[in-house]
Amino acid sequence: GARRVAPTVLDFGITDALGEVTVRLREGEFSAVGRGAHPDILVATARAYVNALNHLAKKEKEGERLHCQHS
Q: Which of 7, 30, 32, 48 stands 20 to 30 A from 20 (CA)?
């Protein structure tokens, strides 16, 4: 089924014409933080979201691997 990921914007700002965004994604017992930077704040947000999704996927995969080793 569809994944339900809850995003939270932790921080954003513009310095030297560069937008910087930090987001936290939470899915079940896993959460991950992602960061993105770009002159366009929307692109920075998208990059942060994708970065967090990649971290979340890695944590979930490692969690599944650990679970299988202990079973």
A: 30
- The residue type at 62: E
Helix locations, 1-71, DSSP H: 41-70
Give the three-class secondary structure for 38: strand
Largest CA distance in the chain: 51
Handedness of CA 49, 50, 52, 56 (dihedral sign): positive
Q: Summarize pLDDT for 4-54 with one digit per residue, the tens.
A: 777 777 777 777 788 889 999 988 888 899 999 999 989 999 999 999 999
Task: List beta partners, residue 19.
Answer: 14, 38
pTM above 0.90? no
